[in-house]
## 1
Amino acid sequence: MRWPADYHTHTPLCRHASGEPAEYARRALELGFEEIGFSDHSPMQRDDFDNWRMRLDQLDEYVQNVRRAQRDFPNLTIRLALEMDYLPGFEDWIRELAARHPWDYLIGSVHYVSDSWAVDNPAEVHQWKDRDPFEVWSAYFERLGQAVESGFFDIVGHADLPKKFNVYPTRDCGPLFDRFLDRAARSGVAIELNTAGLRKDCREIYPSRAFLERAARRRIPITFGSDAHAPAEVGWEFAAAVDLARSLGYREWRQFAGRKFVAAPL
Ligand SMILES: [Zn+2]
Ligand SMILES: [Zn+2]
């Protein structure tokens, strides 16, 4: 079968990934992919914001590394992108980064539910113990709603990330999903099926089937991403992700170039 593009991959510049872009590209070709995109963690204005992203002075190097891979692998379409963190108050910074290079797409992700806590950070997992999961999930989806309404992003990254460590609210999250997805549908963004969840404690694609059923009902477009942080993770479990999407009625994925899109057959 023809794989949809793997639009979520990283590079060692973010300090928690291994393998050069050429190795990701080689792996993609081995698997029969026609298209991938690099979407490494974007820098913050202050390099001491956290320790899991490229430094600001590495942004040009990142772009050069991806451009080199594009030249070295003419048989593979390689997109240039970023995974950007959405935090309220960072709008000017996001706008500035978005204008710095001709990105093919921008993934908007919420990792931080407050200025200092990234819900998926293994070093901060103890923070879950002191909190009501439903409140964390509520804060997360509220922020994700703000992210889509900001209009900065083309794709929503790993939409139900708070499930990573398998900590779920006892209350029904359906209303949170509905409220967020109404906002997403109005904004026109795509949502990615991110297979990294299958490698985490939750053992499930981000977002869940229950979430994606609601997205499909609203005809929200989709993309696919492995969230590869190593070459061996490129295209990770894409067959499962494509099966899931097709079982929900999806027959297209959204293909990006220069921040414009077309519908590609699934
Ligand atoms: Zn990462
Ligand atoms: Zn992420």
Note: Helices lie at 21-30, 59-72, 91-100, 133-150, 174-187, 209-217, 238-247.
## 2
Amino acid sequence: MKRLAILGSTGSIGRNVLRVVEQFPDEFSVVALTAGRNIDLLGEQLKRFSPQVAVVLDDKLARRLRQQFVPGDHVEILYGADGYEAAATFGSADLVVSAMVGSAGLLPTLAAIEHGKAIGLANKESLVMAGEVLTRTARDKGVAIIPIDSEHSAIFQCLAGHRRQDLKQILLTASGGPFLDKPTEGLDDISPEVALRHPTWDMGPKVTIDSATLMNKGLEVIEARWLFDVALERIQVVIHPESIIHSMVVYQDSSVIAQLALPDMRIPIAYALSYPERLDLGLSPPDFFELGALTFREPDLERFPCLALAIEACRAGKTYPAVLNAANEVAVHAFLDRRIGFGHIAGTIQETMAKHEPVSNPRLPDILSADAWARRTAEETV
Ligand SMILES: NC(=O)c1ccc[n+]([C@@H]2O[C@H](COP(=O)([O-])OP(=O)(O)OC[C@H]3O[C@@H](n4cnc5c(N)ncnc54)[C@H](OP(=O)(O)O)[C@@H]3O)[C@@H](O)[C@H]2O)c1
């Protein structure tokens, strides 16, 4: 029985993790759950999964959540940064699922690694902000970071059983999002409702907007760079609208190994939870006769400037990726709040990056201050 601490259990990934747990009650138990503000759903999850610790954003939410429980319910309800750290480092947890959205995931994920916990990583933003710090700490502590992002799970699977020195290139696939073929002139007028409709994946709002701008793919390039310790030059984004091939690895002999599955996050989630075993989720493989064809295109960096900005930030290194990530979070929220148009997301990030004075070989405090500076600057730009 593997004991799980799930950070972000009320989100799209968190709920899918709990679906897998529910399907395999003899394989997994839950010792800690964390949410942000959705205490109604968290309350239901606490009753269903009986963890020992639950965490919410602030004191007021914690008090409201406690009112739902009678003395004798053995769940400790904590809040804020200390609470998230307590959940991430909870003594009996064997695996910490890092599935909060955004920069909020960084400190709990780092704390879990420092405590030697194996990580199932969905929160790509933490690797974008502090890839070097997180991967070095994981190496020092002998901690495995197992990707949950479907593309990185695919790469992880394509690398298994092969010699790392034989790797030539990573082909990171992207659906292209809902605006792959929309005329560029119309992009400025897109409403949040339209941008939130993703053609192949059902995800939380931030990652859905990131998928529409292709910033998600840019963040994933940086995630892959750190997770698999490969140079940026070896990572190529490939647009693949059907989302059946989740990524590929090219080897020295020009063989290409790919991982294919229908787009269902339970597949990479279950693999991360049960690695190296595979669970029978009761899902079907792709029906190739029905699919007929799989298609591929080169990404258009002019149409999707966010992808170009992320590649630039990855190449520039230093504190640029943290600034890119923070400015993107501010711009996405501003778009969802209708304060800026869809087409201004990239401009906000670009202006913020242009004003940044980077720090070389950043340590955690440098990263956190670059993040705070970028949020203020991007907010002013908005
Ligand atoms: N969804 C996918 O299919 C998918 C695929 C690959 C990777 N990812 C990555 O997985 C992560 C989660 O994505 P998601 O789609 O599951 O997001 P989501 O549905 O928006 O859920 C986010 C989770 O984080 C919590 N949260 C939000 N702000 C927080 C804060 N300041 N402090 C603590 N907790 C906070 C939310 O709590 P409340 O809702 O209770 O406020 C919720 O539990 C992201 O990094 C995303 O890029 C997602």
Note: The pocket of NAP is lined by residues 8-14, 35-38, 57, 99-101, 104, 122-125, 149, 201, 203-207, 265 (CB under 6 Å).
## 3
Amino acid sequence: MSLLLRGGWVVTQDAQRAVVRGDVLVDEGRIAAVGDVKGGADEEIDCTDCAVLPGLINAHGHVANTLLRGRADDVPLEKMLEVAFAADAKLTRRDVQVGALLGCIEMLKSGTTSFVDLFYWEDEVARAVREAGIRGFLAWTVLDPEVTTQRGVPVKNAEQFVQKHKGHPRITPMVGLQGVYACSEETYLAAKDVAEREDVKMHTHLSETRVEVYEHEKKTGLRPIEWLDKIGFLGPRLSAAHCVWVTINEVRTLANRGVAVAHCPVSNMKLASGGVAPVPEMRDAGLAVGLGTDSPISNNGLDLFSDMKVCALLHKATRWDASLMPAQAVLDLATIGAAKVLGVDRELGSVEVGKRADLAVVDLRRPHATPFYPANLCSQLVYACRGSDVRTTIVDGVMRVGDGHLVGVDEAEVLGRAREIAVELFG
Ligand SMILES: [Zn+2]
């Protein structure tokens, strides 16, 4: 099955960050040509006045929490977690699957083709990923057995999940960790052991709030990053969400150990985590940084277009420097940067021949995006465009959204089931 995206503005995100006016040919799930393509394909999509970009990559979230959207607004992290954990205890496997499917639909319709998820019952999230046709990097959450709502031993659950899902073309299993406030040294090292044995990546929350950092320092004498380094946990297998409360020395430690970061500006702002992750310094230090929405409880959406804009504005506003985090740097975080975070930049994150065909087509004819100039297309995407401008989304060479409509999944049915579950959960 071949697809030809004809006549768009291709934002390649290649090493030169070239924007090419032309076509993209997709064949057997991969990008077969970029530029002036002669001849046809099994299916042709007219991309006139559209931008064709690499599918966006959401570097951190908890997708099944769509069911909790709007249930913990205007409260800090600790209060939000109370709501989340209380709801978690009531969720059934079916609820998690429906919540995850709802999140996958929202992401596909706003141009996201890959996402990182940190949750228990990742096998249900995996089911949703298979059904929706999106790409999932799924980290089963490990935490101390005495504080979990999971049945069985979390690290064993993670190991089984990883073993079961390794080798799937669109599901990459990972080992997740909740954070230093819920994981002992023994838990961290047991999780690392599984990740090394199975040769998979790890994902965790890290230095998200001031409370987390100071409580940990009180308990151990060390800040979370210093402590994780001392116990030998940090390494290139790890991507860490947030890293808001970090010193420049800790940024250097992360760089030295090859740890990658998922920056979640909207969640950090909404929960009033205070401070701002020093992303410019992280990038200067050579860290791979991606952009994440975090949970629909703390965002409340999964639209990376909206979060790209907030990301750019947050750093400018707080540093009094309009040149900081320019549009290109922010678009990088949501595409090739996030692919580097996951160690898959040879396969994903840019529109280049040979890579997997994960693509988003964005309509540039909407009122809020008019007029547009080819020379500032990247700024237009970050500052003017919205997730709802995405017309077509392709994952692994298969069209999952066409002309704004979901393909292969009954959207109305999933939304209806999500509403029913919300009534059961919250009345
Ligand atoms: Zn999170």
Note: The mean pLDDT is 96.
